[in-house]
Amino acid sequence: MLQFRNLMLITILGFSSFAATTALAAGGLFVEPMLTYERGDSTLEYPAPFLNSTGTISGVGLGARVGAHVNEVIFLALDARYAKPNFKNSSNNLDASSASYNYGPAVGVQTPLIGLRVWGSYVLGGELDPEESNNVDLKFTQAQGYRVGVGFQIIMLSLNLEYQDLKYGSTKVEKVGPFAASASDNINLKNKSYILSVSFPLEF
């Protein structure tokens, strides 16, 4: 898994220097707002001797890609997402609304004639902040991971399916019963989700 992430990051960075000079000259700028729905499984990892817990993360959100076409086939973009998913976890029967965001670079290829597109994103940062539930309030930060997707564009609309694999490397324990806030790098949240979206590619 780590090798796959490193390969994706190297690929994206490799295209970046080429796209910076070529894409602007070609005039292929685009903005792609989107509506999303994600559903996935999560694992909350505690330090020993505590047992890990499992749960789900699901809900609607918004997103956008802003970038440029290197040519008719390759595109490079910044990919940002914001969502309001429901966070459930077997630890203390947590069930709460939450707010999340993440961002990172993306690179993709497309077939102009039939509208098929494939892309990958490397998530550089992000947070997931569930509301308090059963006297427990956690905030997950330092999101990293990847997202891969496929879409089919029909004129100004694209139907998309993505797979997302994220790890939140730090957790802020804002409240546990009567205890005050503290930060911990020993509590990690892993989230693997599928994301359905409708996006609207706008070229300039």
Keywords, please?
1 helix, 8-stranded antiparallel barrel, mainly beta, Porin, 204 residues
Describe the structure.
The chain is mostly beta strands. It has a single domain, classed as Porin. Helix content is 12%, strand content 67%. It contains one helix and eleven strands. It has an eight-stranded antiparallel barrel. A hairpin with a 5-residue loop joins strand 4 (94-110) and strand 5. 32% of the residues are buried. Mean pLDDT is 87; it is low at 15-25.
| Run of helices and strands | HEEEEEEEEEEE
Q: Which regions have little confidence, pLDDT < 50, spanning 5+ residues?
A: 15-25
Helix content: 10-25%
By CATH, the topology is Porin
What's the total helix number? Answer: 1
Count the E strands.
11
Cα-based radius of gyration, to the nearest Å:
18 Å
Major sheet attributes: 8 strands, antiparallel, barrel
Topology:
Elements: H1 2-26, E1 29-45, E2 53-69, E3 74-89, E4 94-110, E5 116-123, E6 125-130, E7 136-154, E8 157-176, E9 182-184, E10 188-199, E11 202-203
Antiparallel strand pairs: 1-2, 1-10, 1-11, 2-3, 3-4, 4-5, 4-6, 5-7, 7-8, 8-9, 8-10
Brief sketch in words of this structure:
The protein contains one helix and eleven strands, in the order H-E-E-E-E-E-E-E-E-E-E-E. With 204 residues, the protein is mainly beta.
